[in-house]
Structures are given as C-alpha cells and as structure tokens.
Amino acid sequence: MPTVTVRPARREDIAAIAEWNAAMAWETEHKRLDLEVLLRGVGAVFDEPRRGFYRIAERDGCAVGCLLVTYEWSDWRNGDFWWIQSVYVAPQARRGGVFRSLYRDVAQRAKDAGAVGLRLYVETENRRAQATYRGLGMEQCHYFLYEQLL
C-alpha cells in the first residue's frame, strides 16, 4: 500500500477542496452546493486562521483527501474541542488509510496544542464511517445535533 503523507493545505488547494466538498455533499446528502459559495467559504478559512485550518492527504505526491478543523470553546473544560469537518477521500483512495492518516495527524496536533478533545458529526445512516471512527477510538456522544439556518 502506498504511503500517505499529510500536509497543510495551501491556497492553491482551494479549488480542489471546494470540489471535494461539493462531491461529499452530493454523496452523503444528495445536496447540490453552489461552487462559487464553496470557493469563497474555503478561501475564508485561509483569510482568517481563527476559523480553522485544512489538512491535505497525499499518496505518491497526489492529493487524495482533506479535512477541515474548526474550534469550539468549552467553558466546562476550559479548553477547545477541535471539530473535524468537510472530510473527503477521493474514491480511488478509499479504504487505503487516508482518513486514518489525516485523523492521526490532527489528533497529535490537537494534543500538542492543548485541545481537550476531538469531535465530528456523521450521517446517521453512514455505518461504514461510524465503524471507522469507533475503530480510531472515538465514541458516540449523548447529544443530538439541531440547527436552524438563517
């Protein structure tokens, strides 16, 4: 199996990240996202690092996946949770350790930065992803996610 390396995303990755986000939204929720909005949204993370950061996975020098980390302050724990979001692995690279490499990279960075934990959300029907997350040591929380779009 080829080696997977993880690196910081760069501005030249914005188009690929936006395309991957669109693909992920279609695959998981059958939602079509506006590519122009996505391009601006991804770019905004680079414009204001307080929003988070992207990591890119490469195999044989070719980008094959990414994720976004954002922050949530926990007053209960006096520290940040790092949220893993916008996870995407190219179809040809799936089941090849790409997400595992991204996750381990982020987990180590979070630990080094003093974060209190990692969180992510997953579609209720996505059993394969849920099994992957459990296999990495994550546990299902006792919370439901609610939202209201404005």
TrEMBL record:
Residues 4-150 form the N-acetyltransferase domain. SUPFAM superfamilies: Acyl-CoA N-acyltransferases (Nat). It comes from the Bacteria. Keywords: Acyltransferase, Transferase. The keyword Acyltransferase applies. Pfam families: Acetyltransf_1. Gene3D superfamilies: 3.40.630.30. This is GNAT family N-acetyltransferase. The lineage of its organism: Bacteria, Pseudomonadati, Pseudomonadota, Gammaproteobacteria, Lysobacterales.
